[in-house]
Each structure stands twice: as structure tokens, then as C-alpha cells.
Write a structure and sequence with these properties.
single chain; 3 strands; globular; 3-stranded antiparallel sheet
Amino acid sequence: MNQFQDDQKIKAAGLPPLTASGNTLNPNNTSASNQRAITLFAITNSPKSTIQLRHEFGIMHPAARIQELRDMGNEIDTIRIAEMTPDGIKHKAVAKYVLKGGNHE
């Protein structure tokens, strides 16, 4: 089960009720614009890896959403880390995305 299938988990994830455009962030909305909003919110709070964005936030193609956010003017660095997937498989060069100027800096 992914984090956003349960309303309590949505609240626990701290998703804001509205985006800047006034649209609700909806974990069941798989549009690219909604996934960009969720991705930007997630990396604003702390750096996130591809694995985290997929499994905790339901973003199926994080690299594409990050590139779109970069194209929109966001400064996002990529570092490579070793990380395990929830099923226990270790990957040696997983992307971790760091938003310059995010809350974590």
C-alpha cells in the first residue's frame, strides 16, 4: 500500500491543502502537474531520493518531474547515493534531489 491511499497517512505526510495555483494536492491525481506539486513540496522540506519519491509519495517517474521543475526555474541538485528499496534490493547510484533554498538548507 502506498502512503497516499490512506487519508491519515496523507495528513501525516504534511501535504498542504492547496498549491500556489489554488488546486488541492490530491494523491489520487496522477497528472504531471499534481505530481510536480507533490515533488516540489517533498523536496522543499528535505532532500528526497528516487526511491522515496516513488514509494512514499507515489511519484512514478521522479526524474521527469524533477526535470520539469528545473525547466520551470527551480534549482535542484542531484547527488548519487546507495539506497535499498522497500523489498530489500540495494541500488548503488540512486538519485537524491536537493532543492537549493529549501527548508532544509
